[in-house]
Amino acid sequence: MTIENLEARTTMLRASIGTNRQDVLALQKDIERLDAKMNPEKGNLRDLLAKRSEIEKHLSLYEQVKTFEDMIRRIADETEAEVATAVAGLSLTAVREFSGEIAKRLAEWGYPSAASVRYDRNELDIIAGDQRRSAHGKGVRAVLHAAFTLALAQYCFDRELPHPGFVVLDSPLVTYRPPDQSAESDDEPPEGVVRAFYRDIQDNFDGQVIVMENTDPLEPLGADSLDIRFTKRVDIGRYGYMPAVADEQAADTFAIEG
């Protein structure tokens, strides 16, 4: 091959390179133009993916809520079944006898219309004056609660049913006023009710009664009863229901008497 042939071939290759370079530049412009057209679609795709992720998150929360609702419904059904079983297990005879025990104790205290007071096994509450105990004022609620607690204990004692043998009554009388006596008309509960209450729990109860009250009994207690005043003083009488803790003892250390 001669030099002339090589030079001619070189010239042809250079021309081909130039043509190819122009083709490449044209293709790059086409690619850029297509990219520009595709960018909005990419943005839409990102938005769609973000919305999809948000929807999936909400669906997951919905499934969790549904799981919790099913759990609550199942627990409620089980509780209702347990209550229904307990109610079904309490015979009408037992309810009648227990209601009689409550009414008898209230009558001893001079509670108005005591004979009509009864225990409702469906409401699981005492009915007095055609109202549930929970619908009365705090004074009547306290007296009815005390009657319920004492009657339940005595009911168990008489039938040799399990019972711890003692009850604790917290302020059963201090706020009580009869229906015809307003709280403003007298700062103290009626003396007849107070005397009858303490007389009844001493004479007609076979267990131990611990009464936490803000007022003193109006009459001396019997020989088998103790009247303990909480002085809130270490050097006089009893400090409180829980004995005082000496300063040098740890704060979480308690000594329980009796």
From TrEMBL:
This is Uncharacterized protein. It comes from Agrococcus casei LMG 22410.
